[in-house]
Amino acid sequence: MGLKMKTQVIRYIVLFVGLPLLFWSLGDFHENTVLKESLSVLIIISFSLMIGQFFLARSSKVFLKEVKTSNLTKFHKIIGYVFVPIIMLHPFFIVFPRYFEAGVRLLARLINMFR
User: Fold this and answer.
1) At 50, is the secondary structure helix, strand, or coil?
2) Are 37 and 23 contacting, i.e. CB atoms less than 8 angstroms apart?
3) ∠ at Cα 54 (13, 70), nearest 5°?
4) How far apart are CA 97 and CA 62, in angstroms?
5) What is the Cα–Cα distance from 82 to 51, expressed in whole angstroms?
6) Per-residue pLDDT tens for 60-105?
7) Sign of the torsion angle spanned by Cα atoms 103, 107, 108, 109
8) 10 Å Cβ neighbour count for 10?
């Protein structure tokens, strides 16, 4: 990986991972359990990287000037294969931490959420 490629990847990571995490950390939210917080961070990173996928498309002339299309496609596929399933499991991640609390069963909550 060349120096220009590394520089572009670092910029991409800072923009689409660092900035959303900075906003999340500066937010004045009530504190949750470690499980809920880690799932929140995972979903925030997944969502911001999915938005960032538009900038890894071949239509991005700025990014293509310094990066080969084959490397661009590789990063695009890696991000897609890792974070699309996380986004698809998002409803389950909302309900899963409540499984450890007393009350309604997990399956009943998941079904109720989609009504």
Assistant:
1) helix
2) no
3) 75
4) 42
5) 14
6) 676 667 677 777 778 788 888 888 888 888 888 877 776 666 676 7
7) positive
8) 11
